[in-house]
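2024-03-11 09:14:02 INFO worker-7 job=invfold-0412 stage=load source=structure_tokens
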């Protein structure tokens, strides 16, 4: 005798699943692609069910930021402020490169989730080997993280520039620059004589400049 069993109802997604799905979408397609409907579709759920878990897309984004910051909490400070701040900078660069949408969110809003606060605390502990003055410590950390943010933004832009690799882009603009560069003597010398570094070496050299500046504050 043929019998029919009742279909097992789909389990509603939980908050971690919602956040994880949103991160996957943002990493692949950019943050604008993240919407309540898009996340619900990825989870094979109804949009209305998401509103029982989070209040809005804004809440999802805030939780996304804190979740990815939780992927790499900085190591405890060693007391060597230069080494500790350098490690902090490399940690943040790795996160920003792994999640390209993260930079604009960190630049545009204060991150205050538990993982974000842990990052802030570790950063201030790192600079404590140089100064215990809270104003100087805050300025040092802000300067360092601003450098990392700008450096990674440049790296990201270069990697996405009209679909061209760096050598291809340079070959494309070379004829124009050869025509006009004689009017800019310092720039001409830089272009023709300065050593050309890849992203990693360029980041490290810039980081050294920033740390030297912090040391002299």
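2024-03-11 09:14:09 INFO worker-7 stage=emit residues=217
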């Amino acid at each position: 005798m043929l019998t029919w069993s009742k279909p097992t109802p789909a389990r509603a997604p939980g908050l971690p699943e919602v956040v994880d799905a949103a991160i996957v979408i943002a990493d692949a397609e950019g943050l604008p692609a993240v919407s309540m409907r898009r996340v619900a579709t990825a989870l094979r759920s109804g949009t209305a069910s998401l509103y029982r878990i989070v209040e809005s897309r804004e809440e999802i984004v805030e939780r996304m930021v804190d979740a990815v910051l939780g992927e790499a909490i900085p190591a405890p400070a060693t007391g060597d402020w230069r080494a500790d701040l350098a490690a902090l900078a490399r940690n943040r660069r790795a996160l920003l490169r792994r999640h390209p949408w993260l930079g604009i969110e960190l630049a545009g809003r204060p991150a205050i989730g538990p993982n974000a606060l842990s990052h802030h605390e570790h950063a201030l502990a790192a600079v404590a080997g140089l100064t215990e003055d809270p104003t100087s410590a805050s300025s040092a950390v802000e300067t360092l993280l601003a450098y990392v943010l700008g450096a990674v933004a440049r790296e990201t832009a270069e990697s996405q520039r009209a679909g061209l690799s760096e050598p291809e882009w340079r070959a494309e603009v070379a004829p124009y620059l050869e025509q006009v560069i004689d009017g800019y003597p310092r720039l001409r010398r830089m272009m023709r004589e300065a050593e050309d570094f890849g992203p990693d070496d360029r980041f490290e050299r810039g980081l050294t400049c920033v740390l030297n500046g912090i040391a002299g504050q």
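2024-03-11 09:14:09 INFO worker-7 stage=report msg="The longest helix spans residues 134-160."
2024-03-11 09:14:10 INFO worker-7 job finished
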